[in-house]
Amino acid sequence: MKPEAPQSYSIAGTTYPAKTIEPGLYAVATPIGNLGDITLRALEVLAAADLVVCEDTRVSRVLLDRYGISRPLAAYHEHNAARERPRLMAMLKGGMRLALISDAGTPLVSDPGYKLVDEALAEGVKVIPIPGPSALITALTGAGLPTDAFVFLGFLPPKAQSRRVKLSAFAEVPATLITYESPHRVAETLADMATVLGADRQGVVARELTKHFEEFRRGTLAELAAGALADPPRGEIVLLAGPPPERVADADDIEALLKAALATTGPGQAAAEIAKATGRPRKELYTLALRLKAVMDAGGD
Ligand code: SAM
Fold it and tell me: Which of 17, 48, 125, 197 could staple 92 via S-S, CB 3.0–4.6 A?
């Protein structure tokens, strides 16, 4: 297969010539439901690629047809990836421009592509990510849960025991947890989340994002689990759990924190920092810091 001249794409009947793009592997994010959610850069790359590597050619053809893009498609999925990768690598090393997409959202995110990207980088092929939609960020954006720290767990294990073990590894992480789940397991996964993470922890079920039946169910994990049993959510689903309640620092924690701070700063600053971190009164911490510093200066610990 030889590199071809770039083609074109069209938006609402207007056709635009695609620009020439440099050789390499383009990991292109595509919509997660609403076909309007695609960037101009994604269209330019898809229209200019020598080959569009996708999971299911029928699914991706719908997207390309919508934008008047007629580029060759090649299927690359978990069942043929090991066989196909050498062929794709040979094309990349030959200077071709490959666009990697998945059925929906960002490739590599719970989708094929990691090994291809890894191999491409190892072989000195340029990898260019083209950002766009992903269900996890879309869910987080609309969930109303803290966003300053979040952990994406991908799909949890389908077996209950392994799922609980995985959840328990993240139970104390001070972050919003995000998982993908298939609709027929949502009720049992939410029940496990309530048991392992805490029944009163806030959660969100985000379903059919960007589509006609988009819905956010909010509540405690226990409420959401009960709701999923009574009225099973259908379609594509992201589950989120808010961070665990902050653990109140006990006296030993406070002393340890103050001692650590006193190693690099004075009692006033140390008290201010630990007051901010723990919510304890600064005056009380300052008195304690003075006492600890006196002991430390005297050679004690
Ligand atoms: N690569 C995709 C991404 O960037 O989000 C994820 C692909 S993964 C195989 C498919 C899972 O993503 C679904 O089972 C669901 O959990 C989630 N998902 C994808 N599209 C979604 C949507 N429109 N609404 C809610 N969840 C979605």
Answer: 125
